[in-house]
Specification:
Elements: E1 7-12, H1 14-19, E2 20-30, H2 34-41, E3 51-55, E4 58-62, E5 84-87, H3 90-100, E6 105-115, E7 118-128, H4 131-156
Antiparallel strand pairs: 1-6, 2-5, 2-7, 3-4, 4-5, 6-7
Length: 159
């Protein structure tokens, strides 16, 4: 079997980009069981409600949903929402631990993907947005979309 290269996206957390102001990002490895890897290769995972924490000098991904592998006879091999260990350097773990001590800061997963055959999670330091921040971001996005639409329509009739 040829060695897998490149990056294959499994799941993205679009909700996190809406609900949080994203700071520094990190790439972490995931400690998984065999059936979890098979499920991820099928592209079945949800990280919308997930978050990460530092406990005992180790990073943990909590509430990520990787459903049971549907094929085969080994039903019940893993819990869908079990806590999974994240693999990071000691310096990165220390940096994250210092950052989440400040109130309002959390660690959220932004994406799950395979990189050169290994399951990875992109995590980020994040601070929660207020409701008015969310409304302002939506308004800015709509204004930008309208401006691009008007420009495209103007260019369409130019020829």
């Amino acid at each position: 079997m040829p060695k897998e290269t490149g990056r294959t996206m499994i799941a993205q957390n679009k909700k996190a980009r809406h609900d949080y102001e994203i700071g520094e990002t990190f790439e972490a490895g995931l400690v998984l069981t065999g059936t979890e890897v098979k499920t991820l290769r099928k592209g079945r995972a949800t990280i919308a409600d997930a978050y990460a924490t530092i406990d005992g000098g180790e990073a943990w991904l909590i509430n990520a949903n990787i459903p049971e592998y549907e094929f085969g006879s080994w039903r019940g091999s893993h819990s869908a929402r079990r806590t999974r260990k994240l693999l990071l350097n000691k310096k990165e773990i220390a940096k994250l631990a210092r950052a989440i001590e400040s109130p309002g800061t959390t660690i959220v997963p932004l994406a799950l993907y395979f990189k050169d055959g290994y399951a990875k999670a992109q995590i980020a330091l994040a601070t929660g947005k207020k409701d008015w921040d969310k409304r302002r971001a939506i308004k800015e996005r709509e204004l930008d979309r309208e401006a691009r639409r008007a420009l495209a329509q103007r260019n369409r009739y130019r020829h």
